[in-house]
Specification:
This protein is mainly alpha-helical. The protein has 3 helices and no strands.
């Protein structure tokens, strides 16, 4: 009779092999499907992307972030006091 650890290891190895077999079969199926799918050229994809640009609605933000602040900052940013400056 097997001890529990050996039994557990053999059971795990069995399921690992099943999982590996499933993954290999899945990848083989994907590869065989990819062979028969027609490949688009880069020019066709670029033309489709350009056509889609006109159908997209503009972003909700109308002004870029760089131009949102109309007035320059007038206050200085807060400075940290160092330990040496605090004790002096």
């Amino acid at each position: 009779m097997m001890d529990p650890v050996s039994f557990w290891m053999q059971a795990n190895l069995f399921w690992i092999k099943v999982y590996q077999s499933q993954q290999e079969t899945y990848l083989r199926v994907l590869c065989s499907m990819a062979k028969v799918v027609p490949h688009e050229s880069a020019a066709e994809i670029a033309a489709e992307a350009e056509a889609m640009k006109s159908t997209l609605k503009p972003a909700s933000r109308t002004t870029p972030r760089s131009t949102q602040r109309s007035t320059p900052r007038t206050t200085k940013p807060a400075t940290r006091k160092t330990k040496a400056a605090a004790t002096a």
